Amino acid sequence: MHIGLQQCFFNYTDQRTNVFKVARVAEDAGFYSYWTMDHFFQLGGEYLGPPEDPMLEAYTTLGYVAAVTDRMKLGTLVTGVIYRHPGALIKTVTTLDVLSGGRAYFGIGAGWFEREALALGLPFPDTTTRFAWLEETLQIAHQMWSEDVGPYRGEQFTLEETLSNPQPPAAPRRLWKQGQLTTERVARPPIMIGGMGESKTLRYVAQYADACNLFASAGIDVLRRKLDVLRGHCEAIGRDYNEIEKTALNSAFWDDLQSAQQVVDFCGQMAELGITHMIFNMRDTQTLAPLETFGRDIIPAVAAL
User: Fold this and answer.
1) What gap in Å lies between CA 127 and CA 241, rounded to an integer?
2) Residue 27 and residue 62: Cα distance in Å, rounded?
């Protein structure tokens, strides 16, 4: 099992130094991936804090982390489709992938934070329209990361040229082919769709994506049902369910997961469901102690799951 870090707190006096230290210590601790929320306001609530708390722009942050690390995969968990025009968004992700040496994920979702969108003058159409934007953005990504530089004409977006040069570098990726796990070099970032909607989100995962991201806090029974739904969508289009990387997000050292052993045991439960990449956020990363605990007590213990 891979372990990833989502950094979602930036309420520190010196954000630059904090991000530098967190990224370097996380990589040294053995974290497989580093993720930022793609938001402009903090999300509210007891755990995350009020919208007024500091929040860094996601892709600028990831570009900085790319420059100070060498191995960790990098991505947003996840980009709201309302924030950037698809053509510019795909170019942004491509640039991150090129400059990081093929370490980018393309994390994408339909978006939901209405207050943030209205505050900053971003579009926030109804749910049906946002999912239509999501599907066309996924189609545009596949076209821009191909040899087809012709137009894209959808019902939501029109691009006269899907030109993106340079293209993403070819990077090793673990793939299932005819029931066997293999490693191939693939010249585009893995596409991850975040969310658990059964009729659209998980169907889009089956049709367009390389990875899903589920909310582990929903519980074992809910996650099992969601993965069964994803399997059904894959069967409906003739895709191998095993090709899709199953990832999940949770918080560590908070609520139910308050000790390293509880995190290890929880990862074991997730592995039994087929989750192969657990991503954790945690408070107090500025002390670096939670990251060091992961490196010492958790990442080695779950590596073979």
Assistant:
1) 27
2) 14
Task: Tokens 């073979």: give the residue.
Answer: 304
Phi, psi of 212 (to 5 degrees): -110, 160
On whether the CB atoms of residues 6 and 77 are closer than 8 A, the answer is yes
| Dihedrals phi, psi of 239, to nearest 5 degrees | -100, 145
Cα–Cα distance measured from residue 278 to residue 271, given in angstroms and rounded to the nearest whole number: 9
| Other CB atoms within 10 A of residue 69 CB | 20
Q: Does pTM top 0.90 for this prediction?
A: yes
Number of structural domains in the chain: 1
Q: How confident is the model at residue 171 (pLDDT cuts 50, 70, 90)?
A: confident
Give residue-wise pLDDT tens across range 173-185: 766 665 666 788 8
HEC secondary structure over 261-305: HHHHHHHHHHHHHCCCEEEEECCCHHHCHHHHHHHHHHHHHHCCC
CA-nearest of 44, 41, 10 to 120 is 41
Maximum Cα interatomic distance, the chain, rounded to a whole number of Å: 54
Query: What does the DSSP 8-state code read for residue 211?
Result: E
Q: Per-residue pLDDT tens for 196-240?
A: 999 999 999 999 999 999 999 999 999 999 999 999 999 999 999
Which CATH number belongs to the domain containing residue 260 in this structure? 3.20.20.30
pLDDT of residue 11: 86
CA distance 223 to 298: 22
At 50 the pLDDT is 94
- Residue 239's domain spans which residues? 2-302
Entry field: residues in the chain: 305
Specify which residues 249 forms β-bridges with.
215, 279
